[in-house]
Design brief:
With 583 residues, this protein is of the alpha/beta class. Helix content is 69%, strand content 6%. The chain is built from 20 helices and 7 strands. A 7-stranded mixed sheet has the order 3-2-4-1-5-6-7, sandwiched between helices. The two termini are 16 Å apart.
Length: 583
């Protein structure tokens, strides 16, 4: 392999690998799946250019019935290797004229239709100087046998140069012209107007001009190469300069230094068709691909807003529980009588008062009432705290959440379905994951309340000065009771049990009032805590929406970038493969 061919092969290998990576990102696109056959045909074409870097050039003679392909092959080969006929098709199987050492496996493997006839030649055999390559006489492109047309198409996919053989009738024949539409950009085309010896000079000029117009206007060739030849005269040794010009052009194209240029041209033709394919695909999917992340973010934000509205309502229902819990937490940080009342709870306070009221009649019953009330209050507080710490009841029911998810993400799933048939391929979150993320977000906000904000609020609920102010009446009243009891003891004039019980009842009443005042103060803080929970949950859900949207954005961005690269494939390949070089 020449250095030039090696460099071309290295560049094409790199570009083909990049193309493969981009295609992997778009492999699940429904719009691409509809073009799968065309895509695979073009990719196979590119791969064949790589596989055949060091193989002989393949020149395929194609044309309609009576164009003289077999005669032209015999003239080029310099020997009778193909059966020729002027008026009827004689090539029902391909005839391959190849060097003895040429490896034809890539040419023949998987070739459908009748098995080709292979004629080998070696150095020194009769023939022109350029026939170190492979020439193929193909069946007619306008054959009524569909297997013949399929064979011609398959051979054209594996050839480097198509030598389009024409005669005066086939120049305007639609079957021959339409066949070339698929190969105009992907194969180097040469046109041979055969049987020129049968034409007048004027008719020849007109037909040559007609072929050039066809090549330029329909096939998009900038400078088509058209030769007027007579294979019959060339085989008789009278081909002259015109036939020699065709031979020289073929020789030039298959020369080692330029053969890579021919294959580069063919690869660029396939790249141009791929670029057209992906530009069309890009126009089809651009709206859905661009709007998918936006719709996803909007849908998730709407879902989060619905969930937060439900959470706000349920938080309001838990306000009384929070106040009760906050009162108890405040009591844990208060050492005075007011703190005891807050810790003991309303039930314990009331049961103690009831016990004091019964004490004058039945001390044992009084003790039981007081102890039982305190125990029941303690159990109720513990159960209430455990239930309060569970945040799952704040979320909407699973069925409601699933319905909301379906409604809010319906536009996104519809777009993803049009793009790839499955939203999860674009990273759209499942209803189960959304529910888990919502639950985790709310659990985090609730845990923050219980572990951090609730203790801090309890610490600030009753300032130290207010505690002393609220405890002072109790201390004074209890001190006065003790003074009266002590004074009576010293004077042997006892105040009596009723006096003491009534005093203690009054003390409990004062403590109960203190608890009521503190509870009113704490209720205001509880409202603030619930607002803080809702705010933190909102912030956490906004973050969750961003996190759930990011995979969709990344997927859409990566696919969009891959699609943009593929849509400019031909432009980049022309630049990287040096299309300006002679070839």
């Amino acid at each position: 392999m020449s250095a030039k061919a090696f460099d071309w092969a290295r560049q094409l290998t790199h570009l083909r690998a990049e193309l493969g990576r981009d295609l992997e990102r778009l492999a699940d696109f429904a719009a691409l799946e509809r073009r799968r056959a065309q895509l695979e045909r073009l990719l196979a074409d590119l791969d064949r250019q790589l596989e055949r870097i060091e193989s002989a050039a393949v020149i395929l003679l194609v044309g309609s019935t009576g164009a003289g392909k077999s005669s032209l092959l015999n003239a080029l080969a310099g020997t009778e290797i193909a059966q020729a006929s002027e008026n009827r098709p004689t090539t029902s199987v391909p005839t391959i004229y190849a060097p003895r050492d040429a490896d034809l496996r890539s040419l023949l493997t998987g070739l459908e239709g009748p098995e080709p006839r292979v004629v080998r030649y070696g150095p020194g055999d009769a023939g022109s100087v350029w026939t170190e390559q492979v020439l193929i006489d193909a069946p007619d492109v306008n054959s009524i046998a569909t297997e013949h047309r399929a064979t011609v198409r398959a051979l054209s996919e594996r050839a480097d140069v198509l030598l389009v053989t024409l005669h005066r009738q086939s120049v305007v024949e639609e079957a021959a012209v339409s066949f070339l539409d698929d190969f105009a950009g992907r194969r180097r085309l040469l046109f041979a107007l055969n049987r020129a010896d049968e034409l007048t000079p004027a008719a020849e000029r007109e037909l040559l001009a007609q072929v050039r117009r066809l090549a330029v206007e329909r096939l998009g060739l900038e400078q088509p190469q058209v030769f007027a030849v007579s294979a019959r005269e060339a085989r008789a040794g009278r081909g002259g300069e015109r036939f020699r010009a065709l031979e020289l052009e073929l020789e030039r194209l298959v020369r080692d230094g330029l053969l890579s240029g021919v294959r580069r041209h063919n690869a660029l033709g396939a790249a141009a068709e791929l670029g057209d394919l992906f530009r069309t695909l890009s126009r089809e999917v651009a709206e859905d691909l661009g709007a998918l992340p936006v719709d996803t973010q909007r849908g998730l934000a709407e879902l989060a807003a619905r969930a937060l509205a439900e959470v706000d309502q349920r938080l309001g229902l838990r306000r009384a529980e929070l106040v009760h819990l906050l009162v108890g937490e405040a009591g844990q940080r208060w050492d005075g009588p007011g703190g005891w009342a807050l810790r003991a709870g309303a039930l314990a306070t009331v049961s103690t008062g009831a016990g004091l009221a019964l004490a004058r009649h039945n001390p044992l019953a009084a003790a039981g009432v007081a102890a039982g009330g305190a125990l029941l209050g303690k159990l109720r507080d513990q159960q209430g705290r455990l239930g309060f710490e569970d945040s799952t009841g704040l979320l909407p029911e699973a069925g409601d959440l699933r319905l909301w998810t379906g409604a809010c993400l319906a536009p996104s799933r519809l777009r993803a379905g049009r793009l790839a048939g499955d939203g999860e391929r674009f990273g759209l979150p499942s209803p189960e994951r959304i529910a888990a993320e919502l639950e985790a977000s709310l659990a985090e906000a609730w845990s923050r309340l219980l572990r951090r904000e609730l203790p801090a609020a309890a610490e600030r609920a009753v300032p130290a000065a207010l505690r002393f102010f609220l405890d002072l009446p109790v201390y004074v009243f209890v001190g006065w009771l003790l003074y009266r009891a002590g004074a009576g003891f010293l004077r042997e004039h006892y105040v009596g049990l009723d006096f003491l019980l009534n005093g203690l009842l009054l003390t409990l009443a004062v403590v109960f009032v203190v608890r009521f005042v503190v509870r009113a103060l704490v209720a205001r803080r509880a409202r603030g805590l619930l607002v803080g929970v809702a705010q933190h949950a909102r912030e956490r859900l906004e973050q969750t929406v961003r996190e759930l949207t990011e995979p969709v954005e990344a997927s859409a961005r990566q696919r969009g970038e891959a699609l943009a690269r593929l849509a400019t494939l031909d432009v980049r390949w022309r630049r990287d493969l040096g299309v300006g070089e002679a070839h």
